[in-house]
Amino acid sequence: MHLLALATTIFLLICNGCASPISDSSLDKRQTTSKYCSAESNLCYLQISTTASNPVFRIAIPDGTSAPFEILLQIIAPVSNGWAGFAWGGGMIANPLTVAWPNGNKVTVSSRWSSGRTLPGTYSGATYKTLSSSKNSTHWMAEVVCTGCSKWSGGQLSTTGINTFAWALSRTAVQQPASASSSFSIHNNLGQFSTDLSSAKVSQSVFQQHIKSAATA
Ligand code: HEM
Ligand SMILES: *[C@@H]1O[C@H](CO)[C@@H](O)[C@H](O)[C@H]1NC(C)=O
C-alpha cells in the first residue's frame, strides 16, 4: 500500500482549490458573449453569460470615445448568489471591481479595489449611479452607470482591441446588505474572458438618453 500516495490523494480531495492563486488555465473560460438588445431600454448591450446558476452581465459604452468613458452595466443574478462581482481589468488585483448584492427588494452596488487576494477595500476612483434595481423570487438585478471603470491607475479599456474581464460570485449573503462598505466572504465561482467591445457600443445620444430617461422613470 502506498501510504504517501493515499495521503496525497486525500489531501487533494479535501483541499481542492484551497489557497494558492488560481492559474489562468483553471479559470472558467466557457463564457458566451453575445449582443443583447432590450426593447425596454431601447439599446443593445454586450452580454456575458455562462450557466443559469451564474450571473449575467451586460455592458454598453458610448461609441466614438476612448477611455475614460462612462459604462452602463447590468448584473442579473440568481437569488442563490449572495454577491456578484465584475473585474474591469480581468483579475482580482489592481483594477476596479464592481460588487453587487441584494438588499431587501433592491440591490446595493459597491465600488472596490484589491491589492491582494483578500476582502477588497472600497474604491473612490469609481462611482456608480443606480438606474434601476430589483429582486424577485428567482433573480436580483441592477443597472448602473459607472464613472471610473474604464480607466484606472495601471490600466484602461480599449474600444478597438481585446480586453480581458473577470467575474466572481459567492453563495453567501453579505454581512450588512444596506452598506456599500459591507464585508463579504470569498467567491464560490470565478470566470475570465476576453472580448472586444464592438457589441457594447451604442451612439452617444442613445447612451445619454437612456441614462436620462431611466433617471426620471
Ligand atoms: C472576501 C473577498 C475575497 C477574497 C477573500 C478573495 C480571495 C481570492 C483568492 C484566495 C483567490 C485565488 C484563487 C482562489 O483561491 O480561488 C482569488 C482569485 C480571484 N478573485 Fe477573489 N477574493 C475576494 C473577492 C473577490 C471579488 C469581489 C472579485 C471580483 C469582483 C474577485 C475576483 C477574483 C478573480 C477574478 C480571481 C482569479 C484571478 C486572480 O487571481 O486575480 N475576488 N480571490
Ligand atoms: C425576476 O427578475 C428577473 C431579473 O430582472 C427577470 O428576468 C424575471 O423575468 C423576473 N421574474 C418574474 C417572475 O417576474
TrEMBL record:
Residues 1-19 form the signal peptide. The keyword Protease does not apply. CDD domains: CDH_like_cytochrome. Residues 83-170 form the DOMON domain. InterPro entries: Cellobiose_DH-like_cyt, DOMON_domain. Keywords: Signal. This is DOMON domain-containing protein. It comes from Apodospora peruviana.
